């Protein structure tokens, strides 16, 4: 929703307001970005937390249309006219070309953007542009801002400043390791305190200088080459424009003066990069962070050290007691290998402990994933009510109840109640199970969104039931799938390990394997597979036979959260006779991998 409209009466005081835009989709044949919308969310959080921006006047748009962007700019222009003094900030991360911002299938010309912002009655107007296009591991973030945008057409208004991710003839880049763009990551690191030169405040110049140095340093070895942030600042004021104050942080962590090296700050348990400090000797650096558990990793050449700290509301901590980090195993002597193995096990144990602490969250039971999941386990949708998602909770409850009721009380369902598998005798019971599992996983995840993206590798476990159109009274086959995602887009799995209880055949046991090629999207994973296996029939029905099977088909998996998914499947299978068409699906968990 756009920010609420201000009254027409001028209001006293200085207002800081912002329009933050992230757009992963650029339309046409441009490959979607992974981190533009996440970068936008991070920028908004830092401006509110540390920059004295009024949360009620910070608008965040994810993948808007050109019309929605126009409307939001107009709303901020109305707000600017209602205050005696104000600072307006516009941030954009997404695709762009020499003409303007590429938002989905829409183009928002730079000339129009300039005109909209310059038309605002704001005392100071600040533009931050991270324009981009995607590539491989380090993705090119697209056509760099055209030269006329910042060079040929100079700033027309005093009190206006622009900062961009690149110079005129370069492409911006984003990083899988940083889980964001280089420019925005280092800009936010600077705003959290890494750019502060000692007064506890981060100015526009300090933030730019820090981002420039770090971006140039870290993109020099990429395939696209070094990118150079650019700026054009025309501010008429006394002193520097302060963007953030480190003391406003809900918690702070100080790196003492004697620490030297590159310090990466990772939020646990999913190791999300939060900030990076190029720490020099002789000057302490204080970072403003949100409450949580963080791992500080210090790199000094080949020497790696780290320490893990927990921050609560109001914490003011000095980071010390660095421990050695063993990056590699395989030393020639058994004793060294044993010590490294124990150290690695200790790290895994710490990760497990931190994961458990985050899941329980006993220090803030109002935001406990375990309580949220437990509520939806007892009553589908109750966990959503716990999170304040009333409409979603009602839909989960209604969906689960409707499909479960239909499976139990529908025509002929009572005779088949115990037939089939764990997901029941019919598609209605399977759908109810999907709703039920989704309610539990969704409730836990939305209490604390600790992972931004679903894993592309690792292990999954799921249950699947498949029906034949000729016999829908019970599943044709059902069982457990254990899948290994060997690499992005390729997986092998044990297929339908289990039994099916049917009126005609009593018990039928199945075992198989399959190879699948998939397209990996943010939430969807469509794929094609080839499966082979066998079925063991009950000797009470006839001769004991192990019948080989072979089949193939397609599946579509939908990740409701980064770890929980539902799946629909259509396959053609033969047991040495006529082919059988099977349809169905299941639900599962992606419990390992990244």
Question: Could you describe the 3D structure shown?
Answer:
The chain is an alpha+beta fold and 594 residues long. The protein folds into three domains: 11-247, Rossmann fold, CATH 3.40.50; 249-325, Immunoglobulin-like (Sandwich); 451-594, Porin. The protein is 27% helix and 37% strand. It contains eleven helices and 29 strands. The chain has helices spanning 36-50, 66-81, 110-118, 147-152, 182-194, 204-219, 334-360, 369-378, 382-386, 390-409, 427-447; strands at residues 11-22, 58-62, 83-96, 100-103, 106-109, 124-132, 138-140, 160-164, 173-175, 180-181, 201-203, 230-234, 242-245, 251-255, 261-267, 272-279, 285-289, 292-300, 303-311, 316-318, 323-324, 458-467, 477-487, 490-502, 506-518, 524-537, 546-559, 564-574, 580-592. Strands 1, 2, 3, 4, 5, 6, 8 and 12 form an eight-stranded mixed β-sheet that branches. It has an eight-stranded antiparallel beta barrel with strand order 22-23-24-25-26-27-28-29. Helix 1 packs parallel to helix 5, helix 8 runs antiparallel to helix 11 (427-447) and helix 10 (390-409) packs antiparallel against helix 11 (427-447). The longest helix is centred in the middle third of the chain and has 27 residues, at 334-360. It is elongated.
